[in-house]
Design goal:
2 domains, 0% strand, 284 residues, Receptor-associated Protein, mainly alpha
Length: 284
């Protein structure tokens, strides 16, 4: 009798689905937990499975994962939740891999396909997070030049930098608007403007945003004309966007090699040599 039976696969899949379901439950943010502690509400902030995950995963890894979650805009997902989600996806991959291994008769191909499926399922949560980070940074890089133009115009019109940020954030869209609203909320509750802007740049971790914040903070400290600085920032951001577009356009020929080799060239050979082969076969 095979040591791998359907009951083992079922149990593994059920446990994995439970872990994934638990990880998808929305959690409170760190700020909400701090407010709860300030209100002297005594309850455990971590459940049993959270404590187990924290013992397995190192503190350094949790810190890096927290930074990536913030970059991706997943503020309601904690490192413990993300790790639980990864373990659940890995368990689902193991269950599916064992099922395929049994269906293919305990063959080498079954082991290879099952192992590949386990690897893919294990990487799925990280792939989704990486895509969220990439899309978020691309959105900020795309919308930042227009925002800087509006900000420069409002500053030239005579508004203070805080009022100009408020007016410009209303005209912004998407991720940039959300981050600006959060930054302005921090400024309203008493945080220094430079610290709030630096925190925004650290959350987004995008080159254009970091350059903008660093330049604005230095211009305020040195007393430089802010409107001129903002105009130069808008120009640099737009030039950088053009360079990225040209870089992507230059990569297209290399990227198209694989689709052409897989689809276009075989079709072309079939169109050219197909009739010749058909005539030879008919003549014989």
């Amino acid at each position: 009798m095979s040591p791998i039976n359907p009951l083992t696969i079922t149990v593994c899949g059920a446990i994995s689905m439970f872990l994934v379901a638990v990880s998808l439950v929305p959690t409170r943010s760190v700020l909400a937990k701090r407010f709860e502690k300030l209100g002297q509400i005594n309850e455990k902030s971590l459940t049993q499975h959270n404590l187990l995950v924290e013992q397995i995963v190192s503190k350094e890894y949790r810190g890096k994962l927290q930074s990536r979650l913030i970059e991706g805009g997943w503020y309601n997902v904690s490192p413990v939740t993300m790790t639980t989600r990864t373990f659940g996806a890995l368990g689902i991959g193991v269950a599916l891999g064992l099922a395929i291994y049994l269906l293919l008769g305990l063959s080498v191909w079954g082991a290879l396909i099952g192992g590949l499926l386990v690897l893919i399922c294990w990487r799925v949560p990280s792939i989704f997070l990486s895509r969220a980070i990439k899309q978020r940074k691309a959105a900020v890089s795309r919308d930042l030049p227009d925002f800087l133009d509006i900000l420069s115009t409002t500053v030239q019109a005579g508004l203070a930098i805080n009022a100009a940020l408020v007016q410009s954030s209303d005209a912004a869209v998407g991720v940039l608007r959300e981050e600006l609203k959060s930054t302005l909320a921090e400024i309203r509750i008493g945080r220094q403007r430079s610290d709030a802007l630096i925190a925004m740049a650290q959350r987004v971790n995008e080159t254009s945003m970091t350059t903008m914040v660093t330049t604005i903070v230095q211009a305020e400290r040195l007393g430089t004309s802010l409107s001129l600085v903002l105009q130069e920032l808008a120009k640099d951001a737009r030039d950088r966007r053009w360079l990225l577009a040209e870089e992507k356009a230059a990569k297209l020929p290399v990227t198209m090699i694989i689709p052409m080799a897989l689809f276009m060239i075989p079709s072309l050979y079939l169109m050219i040599f197909g009739p010749v082969i058909a005539n030879l076969a008919q003549s014989r």
